[in-house]
Amino acid sequence: MPRSALSGRGxxxxxxxxxxxxxxxxxxxxxxxxxxxxxxxxxxxxxxxxISSWLGGQIGWQEIVFGNNSGLxxxxxxxxxxxxxxxxxxLEPWPFKATxxxxxxxxxxxxYTLLSRLLLQDPQLRHRARLVALIVSTIWLLHPMQVxxxxxxxxxxxxxxxxxxxxxxxxxxxxxxxxxxxxxRSALLDLFVFLPLTTLAAMLSKENGALVPLxxxxxxxxxxxxxxxxQRPLAVKVFFALFLLTPxxxxxxxxxxxxxxxxxxxxxxxxxxxxxxxxxxxxxMDYMGxxxxxxxxSLGLYTDDFAISHSLLDPSTTxxxxxxxxxxxxxxxxxxxxxxxxxTGIIFYLAGHVMESSVFPLELxxxxxxxxxxxGFFLAVVGLAxxxxxxxxxxxxxxxxxxxxxxIGTIALLSMxxxxxxxxxxxxxxxxxxxxxxxxxxxxxxxxxxxxxTNLVAEGRFDEAQQTVDHLITIPDPAAQHLAAIDTxxxxxxxxxxxxxxxxxxxxxxxxxxxQLSEMLAFEMLAKxxxxxxxxxxxxxxxxxxxxxxxxxxxxxxxxxxxWRSRYIASNLYLAAGEYIKAEQQxxxxxKTEHADPAIGFLLANLEYxxxxxxxxxxxxxxxxxxxxxxxxxxxxxxxxxxQLFENPPxxxxxxxPQLQ
Length: 661
Hints:
The structure is a single chain. The chain is mainly alpha-helical. It is globular, with a radius of gyration of 28 Å. α6 (93-118) runs antiparallel to α7 and α9 (156-180) runs antiparallel to α10. It is 68% helix and 0% strand. It has 3 domains: 24-426, no CATH class; 443-586, Alpha Horseshoe (Serine Threonine Protein Phosphatase 5, Tetratricopeptide repeat); 597-661, no CATH class. Mean pLDDT is 91; it is low at 1-13 and 653-661. The termini are far apart.
């Protein structure tokens, strides 16, 4: 990089554009090995399975777009892009991943454009605005932490949300520029028409899009401050009152009136609200450490081993992390006027974690939560570094040599990031390698150990799979003990076609504990194994009864998916054994939660009919119809078939059993 570029003197778009293009090309090259990797983790239930049904004509496109249950708004815009991918190229993984990469590149261009314009307001950086924007956007593009977002297809939801948030922030900066230039009409259109529409698009991609007004407030405080000469426009104050303060007060007020709603939402977790609030400062400090010094092989999705904070000193890093975050926030506020890029970047980063790293009962740690917020972190680091460089330069005799060293250092940094990302992308090209490395790097991660076990079983390496399952017993986590018990029996049934009483009793010992999604999925796998393999010592009825007893004793509300879905698993096992009455009982309990899939209601109606309760079957059928969404063609067609069936008396010992997808 030439010294003129490093100094920022006379930089023009024509001089920075080739460097930006080079960064984009380099990003493509380092991600290429990962584009041919498989669908992973949450991709099958969210993308592969529903789109396979759509391609097979079993469901309509509406169910793909509006039927996802990932968030409150169902993320239809993200789902529409998955549908478009499938319409063009079927279910080959690489076009989906290539689309994710294209969105990543577009986000990088938007980051460069946003910072190029925003930093013109920065008294320290306005003469180097394009240079700083180029460095920040290139670091962001090449950072290895982004791999677990870009190459994880379902995280397109995060990417699209970031894309629309960046567009919204560009609109906001344009609006503020229009106010300064006296173009009131354009500014008002930006603030009250285009910006809300773009925010809505971000929210329909992922709910984090609701943070757009908060991000705008950060930019306002950082770069559009009031002074004696410049008053903040009234329209800007109205915008924040309408779109930031009012929603925030309504949400805080609602939870203030109904605090138990928030507390009860933790029923499905092994930590409570207090423990989450203690843990998240450690999470944020860990994120920032990984952004500063990427940890290579330990990066990825296997972060369910992150320790829960039980008190300020358990672990001891809890208190230090809280103090560290406070110190960082105070430093940012203290440097607001002197180094506005540092203030804006740090507060932007923290604002980006307001939803996913605060009070809501999500998993503690996921790298993709840094996808957009990391822009702020990199801006803060580069802005602070630039401020320090300016101060140092006044004490340096050989300024030209110092400039060359800075250029070499910057190129070396970007090269190291590119190499690290290339290595991570290569690992992501194979689920087997990814899971094996995850199990090695995260020995306490249940997700890593179970994925590694699944791959070992698929390869017929049963002894190694059993060793991995045995390792679960050493993990100080109740869920690990439960998974070890269930999977030991699973392996015994698959390999030896028999199990023993001691192993069965270990599953029974789960009774009374909180049931997690991991145990539910393990039960589902064991139930499927019993459908395809004879297993001496364990039959469908016995397993169904064990699952039923565990669910009955779980200290959790039955509305949780892991409970009502486990009842569904038990009901299918009873059906396989021909015990229709017991199957009906479990389906009835699942349906009474009012949170189960409508297909559960149709199954209950069918069971009621087969068991001779035709009148009751019709009542349940009507109830299931009321819970069926307008786009749910599969369940609508099932309802029609059942209505026709119910016109006749049930034949003896005949069951037309609907399946829950």
